[in-house]
Amino acid sequence: MPPQSNPEGAAPPITFSSFVIGLATQALMFLGAAPEAGGAGKPNIERNPAEAQVIIGVIEMLAAKTNGNLSEDEGKLIEEVLFELRMRYVNETRRPAGQEETKS
């Protein structure tokens, strides 16, 4: 059966930007930025800064390997994503154990 061109309800094609955003979303979830599951008061994923650090490393590797081959928008996206994730990682790992981030 030949592949179909995005039938109704199918996921859109994966682009470099959507791939990076997907990785960043996973890292954010491990840094405690995941929405609560159905209002149950519990995050979907437990905080795990070590897992977030692995994903940040993957994005850094992608940035290095694609250097010079990205569009201007893709380059900006990956820089901004890495900056945001690194800042959140530092904030998460410097916070005393058991202390929750205050939301503003």
Task: Describe this structure as you would to a colleague.
- The chain is mostly helical.
- It has three helices and no strands.
- The chain has helices at residues 16-30, 49-65, 72-94.
Features:
single chain; 3 helices; about 100 residues; mainly alpha; about 0% strand; flat
Short note summarizing the structure:
The chain is mainly alpha-helical and 104 residues long. Helices cover 53% and strands 0% of the residues. The chain contains 3 helices and no strands.
Q: Mind sketching the topology for me?
A:
Blueprint (H helix, E strand, L loop, with lengths): L15 H15 L18 H17 L6 H23 L10
Indicate the mean pLDDT.
Answer: 85
Report the C-alpha radius of gyration, rounded: 17 Å
Q: Which stretches of 5+ consecutive residues score pLDDT under 50?
A: none
Q: What is the CA–CA distance across the termini?
A: 52 Å
- Give the overall shape, derived from the CA principal axes: flat
Percent strand equals under 5%
Succession of helices and strands: HHH
Number of strands: 0
Main beta sheet strand tally, sense and closure: none
Class per helix and strand makeup: mainly alpha
As a percent range, the share of helical residues equals: 40-55%
Instruction: Tally the helices.
Output: 3
